[in-house]
Amino acid sequence: MMTDLFRAYAHQVASYHTATAREDLFSEVYDELCEEFEDWQAEHPGRGQAEFLDARREHPMKLATRMAGDRTAYLVGPSLYFSFISALKSAAAIVVVVHVVLAAVRVFAGASVPGAALGFVSGLPDTLLWVGAAVLGVFVALEKSGERAKWLDDWTAADLKSVDGHQEMSRLESSFDLAFSTLGLLWVLDIVKLPATIRHEGDWVADWTLNLPDWAWWFAGILLAFGVVFSLYRLGQSFWTRRLRSIAVGENLLWLALLTFVITRPELLTTTYDGGADFVVFVERALKGGLIVIMVIVGWDTVKHAWRLIRRSF
Amino acid sequence: MDTRDSTEIVEKLRLELRRGALPLAVLAQLRTEHYGYSLRKQLSAKGLEIDEGTLYPLVRRLEKQGLLASEWRADGGRKKRYYLLSALGREVLALLAVEWRLLNESIDNVMESE
């Protein structure tokens, strides 16, 4: 645990830079901190990393700014550059969330899913542009007023989030889980209908019924609702922790149990379509095959999380 | 002009002077191999304090110009980037050193003539 705060500090400095520069920058800053700390400890025996950082280091964004040389944005100078980029990213994230919520409300209000998706896609760039312009306007005004990012002055090492040995979380994976859980939940709640994808002898067959007991539907609904909340929470985090991995393992095991129950049901599918018993058996086998593939993916994900938990390498 | 104003101006001009001289000092120090912190320590021991936020962008710029060569090495679980003057860097350092001495001499002459 000796190097925990230094890793966190170096990681935060590097995080403001482009992805290609981060690894080198992290190594440079981290090594600097470790080396300087050893010298500092000789003069201040018994003092820890937090005291060292408070005494010798400024806000990570300030160091990132100086390490970047003279990077500027349009009308925004180097001293405000990273604050501007951070504000822009936060504003963009809020805009996306607001548009997702608005699209969901439209679906609940009776709009079709493709219509709501189209509204989301067409409305988003417009709002992003306006919000981006507003953020730029604020920072240009700050720049003109001679502001030098005073909000970064009140920084202490206690503000750092520990990242020692923790794996970075994939936002793509969290976004995929969010989209999958949201769609699944809307389908279970009968708010959206899946399009007819099975064609037999010239007819589209859409009226399939999954023969599951009520408790299984409730169970699936609760798991999907939890999936929405959990993936939303993960989108706000940067690193896996023991707690998050444990929750992921628990969630996956519950899904595996439910999927095992579903796959072992003897007559999972029924339809009013009169296409013959062989056709229904074929579709049911295809569905169960698909569910087995999903089980393998979920199982692999569970093993990955469990392995990290066992090795205490979160 | 009050004392505080002159102090601020001197500080700004001092920084400008240092900024111009630092590349020469860094090139000269990198005739022997150093990684970031050891380079800072060596310069500090010779009276030139330089913070990491100034040093790293400077060595990166000098490397981009072909004056330095660098190599990453693992050391006790950490990665260190070692810098060394390149052949072109040696050539440029020799020319800059002459320029520095001439400038120094000229400035001294100007100062003494007052």
Task: Summarize the helices and strands and which ones pair or pack.
The complex is a heterodimer of chains A (314) and B (114).
Chain A: H1 4-15, H2 19-43, H3 49-56, H4 60-67, H5 78-108, H6 113-144, H7 171-188, E1 198-200, E2 203-205, E3 208-210, H8 214-235, H9 242-263, E4 269-271, H10 277-310
Antiparallel strand pairs in A: 1-2, 3-4
Chain B: H1 3-29, E1 34-35, H2 36-45, H3 52-64, E2 68-75, E3 78-85, H4 87-113
Antiparallel strand pairs in B: 1-3, 2-3
Can you tell me about this structure?
The complex is a heterodimer of chains A (314) and B (114). With 314 residues, chain A is mainly α. Chain A has 3 domains: 4-67, no CATH class; 78-151, no CATH class; 171-310, no CATH class. Chain A has helices spanning 4-15, 19-43, 49-56, 60-67, 78-108, 113-144, 171-188, 214-235, 242-263, 277-310; strands at 198-200, 203-205, 208-210, 269-271. In chain A, the strands form 2 sheets. A two-stranded antiparallel sheet of chain A has the order 1-2. In chain A, strands 3-4 form a two-stranded antiparallel ribbon. The mean pLDDT of chain A is 83. Chain B is an alpha+beta fold. Chain B has a single domain, classed as Winged helix-like DNA-binding domain superfamily/Winged helix DNA-binding domain (Arc Repressor Mutant, subunit A). Helices cover 68% and strands 16% of the residues of chain B. Chain B starts with a helix and ends with a helix. The mean pLDDT of chain B is 90.
